């Protein structure tokens, strides 16, 4: 197998990972969500645990089992995920934000089940806060922050904008139109973008190997910063 000098760099480090979609309530029985399964975040948490990191997984509703040895903080909504990340982040040496939080929630949550009526139903959606941007001041000095970007057009330009606006050390770009990459599959083809302008396309790999490539970058950055 692979053996890198930076492999030991995550031992004992606190690694905070987010995974999965969120659910935004419409009424007591219905919600708004997306196709995220949680596979990429779970693969990251498992890979970090294999490197002897102290792993916390903030998880929306997952379609895959959570890895053994990982402390899980279950959440449902984007607001709950925001609050959980804000609470955990001050202790984290690295944050890997693999979740797909819903960008919107219903403006009003009906307290009773909405009944079928004669005509159409409109649901007004209001924007959720950006978790990465909104928790910036809670990051430890030197903490390594990784985000993802799921794009269908202008892939690199959009990812680079997110890298800067969210204050990231690394963004993992996913092309949502490519087969074998993205939601619900066990493989992923990603591109790494960094603040130095570098663009590093990765091979189509099982999500566990994508996770290891991401953690190699995290470990190298922590080692370089002396964290
Ligand atoms: N993210 C976040 N808070 C949100 C939405 C997304 O922190 N409310 C994080 C994701 O976990 C991911 C990164 O931001 O690491 C980019 O998510 P993405 O959905 O690609 O970007 P958005 O900023 O939500 O922009 P858009 O969906 O409009 O492309
Ligand atoms: Ca989004």
TrEMBL record:
Binding site for CTP: 103, 113, 148, 162, 166
Keyword annotations of the record: Decarboxylase, Flavoprotein, FMN, Ligase, Lyase, Magnesium, Metal-binding, Multifunctional enzyme
Chain segments carrying region Phosphopantothenate--cysteine ligase: 15-227
Record's GO cellular component terms: phosphopantothenoylcysteine decarboxylase complex
E.C. number(s) listed in UniProt: 4.1.1.36, 6.3.2.5
Record bears the keyword Transmembrane: no
Domain of life: Bacteria
All residue ranges annotated as the DNA/pantothenate metabolism flavoprotein C-terminal domain in the record: 10-220
Protein purpose: Catalyzes two sequential steps in the biosynthesis of coenzyme A. In the first step cysteine is conjugated to 4'-phosphopantothenate to form 4-phosphopantothenoylcysteine. In the second step the latter compound is decarboxylated to form 4'-phosphopantotheine. Catalyzes two steps in the biosynthesis of coenzyme A. In the first step cysteine is conjugated to 4'-phosphopantothenate to form 4-phosphopantothenoylcysteine, in the latter compound is decarboxylated to form 4'-phosphopantotheine.
UniProt family annotation: In the N-terminal section; belongs to the HFCD (homo-oligomeric flavin containing Cys decarboxylase) superfamily.
Name of the featured protein: Coenzyme A biosynthesis bifunctional protein CoaBC
Native organism: Roseisolibacter agri
């Amino acid at each position: 197998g692979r053996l890198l000098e930076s492999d030991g760099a995550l031992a004992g480090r606190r690694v905070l990972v987010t995974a999965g979609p969120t659910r935004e309530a419409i009424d007591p029985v219905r919600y708004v969500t997306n196709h995220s399964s949680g596979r990429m975040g779970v693969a990251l948490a498992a890979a970090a645990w294999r490197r002897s990191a102290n792993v916390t997984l903030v998880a929306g509703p997952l379609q895959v089992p959570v890895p053994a040895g990982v402390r899980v903080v279950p959440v449902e909504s984007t607001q709950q995920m925001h609050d959980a990340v804000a609470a955990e982040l001050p202790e984290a040496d690295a944050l890997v934000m693999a979740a797909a939080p819903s960008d919107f929630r219903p403006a009003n949550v009906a307290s009773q089940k909405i009944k079928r009526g004669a005509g159409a139903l409109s649901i007004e959606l209001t924007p959720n806060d950006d978790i990465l941007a909104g928790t910036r001041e809670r990051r430890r000095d030197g903490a390594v922050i990784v985000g993802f970007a799921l794009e269908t057009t202008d892939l690199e330009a959009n990812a680079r904008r997110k890298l800067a606006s969210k204050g990231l050390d690394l963004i993992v770009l996913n092309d949502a139109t490519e087969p074998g990459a993205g939601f619900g599959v066990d493989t992923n083809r990603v591109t790494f973008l960094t603040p130095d302008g570098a663009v590093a396309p990765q091979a189509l790999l099982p999500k566990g190997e994508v996770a290891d490539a991401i953690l190699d970058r995290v470990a190298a950055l922590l080692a370089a910063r002396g964290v």
